[in-house]
Design brief:
The complex is a heterodimer of chains A (480) and B (236). Chain A has 480 residues and is an alpha+beta fold. Chain A folds into two domains: 24-65 and 334-478, no CATH class; 82-319, no CATH class. Chain A contains 17 helices and eleven strands. The longest helix of chain A has 40 residues, at 34-73. Chain B is α/β, with parallel strands linked by helices. Chain B has a domain at 7-96 and 166-229: Rossmann fold. Chain B is built from seven helices and ten strands. In chain B, α3 (105-115) crosses α4, α4 (120-133) packs across α5 (149-160) and α5 (149-160) runs parallel beside α6 (179-196). The longest helix of chain B is centred in the C-terminal third of the chain and has 18 residues, at 179-196. Chain B starts with 6 loop residues before the first strand and ends in a 7-residue tail after the last strand. Classes of the chains: A alpha+beta (480), B alpha/beta (236). The interface between A and B is medium-sized, with 31 and 29 residues.
Chain lengths: 480, 236
Amino acid sequence: MKQKLTHAVRNLMRRHQRALTTLVLALRNLTRNRQRSLTTLLAMVVGVNAILIFGGYSHDITNEMQTDFVQRSGHLQIQRKGYFLYGSGNSAAYGIAGYEKLIAALKNDPVLKPMVVVATPTLQLGGIAGNFGAGVSRTVMVQGMVAQDQVQLRKWNDYGFPIAPRPLPLDGADPQAIVIGEGVARVLQLCAELKVPMCDAQPKAADPAANDAPPDLAALSALEGPAVHNEATRIEVLATNVHGAPNVGSFTVVKAEQQGVKELDDVYVAMHLPGAQRLVYGREAPQVTAVIVQLRHTDQIAPARARIEQLLAKDFKDAKLDILDFETLNPYYGQTNRMFSALFGFVFVLIGAIVIFVVSNTMSMTIYERTVEIGTLRAIGQRRRGIEALFIIEGAVLGMIGSALGVVIALVISSAVNVSGLNWIPPSRVDPIPLTVRVWGEWGMMVLTFVGLTVVAALSAWLPAKGAAKQPIVDALRHV
Amino acid sequence: METKPAVVIENLNKTYQLDNVQVPGLVDVSIQIASNCFTVLSGPSGSGKTTLLNMIGCIDRPDSGRLLVAGQDVSQLSDDALSDFRARHIGFIFQTFNLLPVLSAYENVEYPLVMAGIPAESRRARVEQLLNAVGLMAKANHRPGQLSGGQRQRVAIARALALSPALVLADEPTANLDSQTGSMIIHLMRRIQRKYKVSFVFSSHDPKVINAADGVFNICDGRITGFERINRNISA
């Protein structure tokens, strides 16, 4: 047994020594034609940088999108079954009764507590907003919210973007205050009052009598809430209540806010939750259309969801509730992710192909120049596989050095970009944010690029190496 | 006691194809090369001496005939088996030295020992012994580019002897050296051949090499045309 072990150890040491010698030979051979090696390395460095910088940039875009979605709508939403697909036109039919109990259960559950940052109700409803002073109105999508919770939602920044949370105009505002999209403000002719840009010609109402809402609406409005303070930005919001009857509320627009996407900007109305609930439920018990759950980290979605499912099955069985994650709620996120993945794959394949050609060309030239050396090595007893291994290792070493240099330079470039102070406006955002390229921390991408291109470089050397090992020894020795 | 011949060749034939023309390289060659001797294959350029040396060195295969090197019939060995056989039994000295330029003199001599899996201690002892034998211990760390032609050939001799082969083959070993260095190399090889009791086979038409030989096979147009016994133990 001891003898076998000794033999095995000796064998291992011999192989180790052979591999080490081959590696030394490969490294030294790379210095023989420095200019060629440097050119090859430069091509690899450029390739690695193209992959990592683009990959880091696209990761930042998708992470930024995720941050935006999570700040707006949380990681998970608990809704009535069917609301997501069928409920947007009839929110009254998909309300969650007793939602306070559900939120309390989420906040107090010992499993969820360490994961949940915010659990807040929201009520979404469709309606008509009218500036009857100007004789204009339009359909809108109203979101009723708890302002303080929304402020907390907007603070989520798990990827550490150098951005400050967007202020929420509703926070601390009057109960009758609302925020509307700039598109809504334009249609309702509130541009001057709300300082909305790109808002030139506005036909003013000709009849001063039209400054008032129709008498029936005014009466309804008076029933639903206190009088508004600012007549200049007063609008009425008409909605269908839970019994299918019209209901109207009078509100003061405190700010017109760009929503990034025009379709949303043209319908967006945000108000305090009680105001929205009064429109739909009147004096009946208020309900909401969703409970937004924001977690500390995105990777907690699966365990949080599993736990919420347990809670719903146990204590809210009759409520027929469903849990949707932010990717389901925002299909655009998945589509963008897939688009960038496809682009990244394309860039990777393209760079891989360039590396194949460059390394293969370099190795072919190297092999051609060292034909006599190959013949000599074969003559003194090197097997064909040994010759192949020698050049494949040379290719791999070239790939390794090129990839490592590329990774280091990509880190330097990305750091320079991150501190450069450049700004840009990404899709679905309205305000500029610092341009960032996230390479540091993207370990998976770095390892994939390093290993991938090293393997590609080694494989690029394989074909010429195979050809070199196959040639007759006497022909190789005669090579001039 | 009669010693076994280092090489036995029977009816060896080799033809080369040059475009549409068949060129005979070796024609029905049958010789025996004695062990522990200094044997020269001599003939004009294109006579077939290098071809015969390549056959003996197992780096080229004959079309027909039988070839025994160090008692082993090498005709049927696979490529890997032939590589291993060359590593164990045959040393090569080339006209252009053919050292690995990125390795030092020491590393060049050590290379066959590493490939054969010789332990580090034994390797060191063997390399130092050989470099001392060729008088290059002081230049052990020099790369071939830093050595003269004669010094490079001495390193090549040391490398050829690294694994104590039965046979050392040298193709025109003095052709790229000046006359004085050539003579020195011949004397060195002769001394080493005697010291290590190894068979040396040369292809050469250098009179100095021929004069130092134990026996000379003359080749012309791929045929053995004569044999000159200068010393014992050689037969045609």
